[in-house]
Amino acid sequence: MLKKSLTATLALFAVMLLITGCNSGTTADKQTAEPVPKDETDNQEKTEPANKQIQLPQEHLQKHENNDSVKMLQEVLNQVGYNIDLTGTYDEMTTWAITDYQIQQENLSVTGIYDDTTKDSLKNSLENGASLKSGEGIGKNSSDAAAINNPHEILALVNKDNALPEGFEPINLVVPDVQFPFEDFLPKKQMRQVAATAMEDMFAAADEAGLELYAQSGYRSYDRQDAIFAANVQQHGEEAANNFSARPGESEHQTGLTMDVTSPDVNFKLTVEFGETDEGKWLKEHAAEYGFIIRYPKGKEDTTQYQYEPWHLRYIGEKAATEIMEKGITLEEYLGEAS
Q: Is 91 exposed, middle or buried (0-12, 13-18, 19+ CB in 10 A)?
């Protein structure tokens, strides 16, 4: 009897050991099989670039401005294919890059100024991963070291010290829908589209004010300016001609951003008396509202190196034009390049 009881006890003990071992192994296996929790920061690092917002300056920017927004713009330009130092200054290179970018896009006004339409276009370029070829729009720089490297920007300084590149022709020339004192088409009726649109708005405002403005002479090619200067030299002598007539390549008319204007009160002539007419006075007060300046103002002959010309309007955009006209300075002084 004792022997049977001992045998039963040993059997029961063996069964308990077996059960305990099985349970221990199962628990260990479950612990090993449980997945390791993922670090939440891993997911954040992977998704952050996709959720990151494209940073583009919101305000308009142009040459000579210096701030963090300009640096932001330079970073964006580098992302789409340019190589610009992050100086925070809207310098010549930044202006050149914006101009080159604008030329390469469809339906962008070529100005060298960062505006709303350029901002939207850059945003699309970034979202689409576009990469541009630097210089594809403007082309190679002129071999003439003294020539303007970016003649397409609307703040290009053209004068006796800064000539346009040989063979330069402006883009997007059109005839503005304004009054001319002649009917036939001549090349001098043309302006660049960006300037022509602004001139149409200005002439419409003058008409509403009861004035009679007429456009007289806009774009001139290099060859046309050469002929005009030669004729003036023959009639007045070179020294005198150089006070009121530009040598070929040194004329703002070749940019397509200039228009000489007149009125019936001066028999449609280009004369200093135009400045005393109602039209001339109105332009002096309101031209900047449409992006134009009187390029050769009275009393600034030593700076511009040309005589007073109240009829000669140059388009440079509203921001620069307003500052120049309010301060009574010239384009040379505004750009800090007056001699």
A: middle
**110 and 237 together in one domain:** no
Distance CA 96, CA 138 (A): 8
Whether residue 17 is contained in a domain is answered as: no
Examine the domain organization and report whether 105 and 180 are in the same domain.
no
Span 102-127, average pLDDT: 94
Q: Dihedral of CA 185/191/194/197: which sign?
A: negative
Q: How many domains does the chain have?
A: 2
- Distance of alpha carbon 21 from alpha carbon 201, whole angstroms: 95
Same domain, 221 and 87: no
Number of H helices, E strands in the chain: 12, 6
Residue among 269, 287, 274 at smallest CA distance from 324? 287
CA distance 247 to 241: 9
Q: Which domain holds residue 294?
A: 173-334
Cβ-based neighbours of 38, under 8 Å, separated by 6 or more:
none
Q: Residue 13 — pLDDT band, cuts 50, 70, 90?
A: very low
Paired strand residues for 259: 313
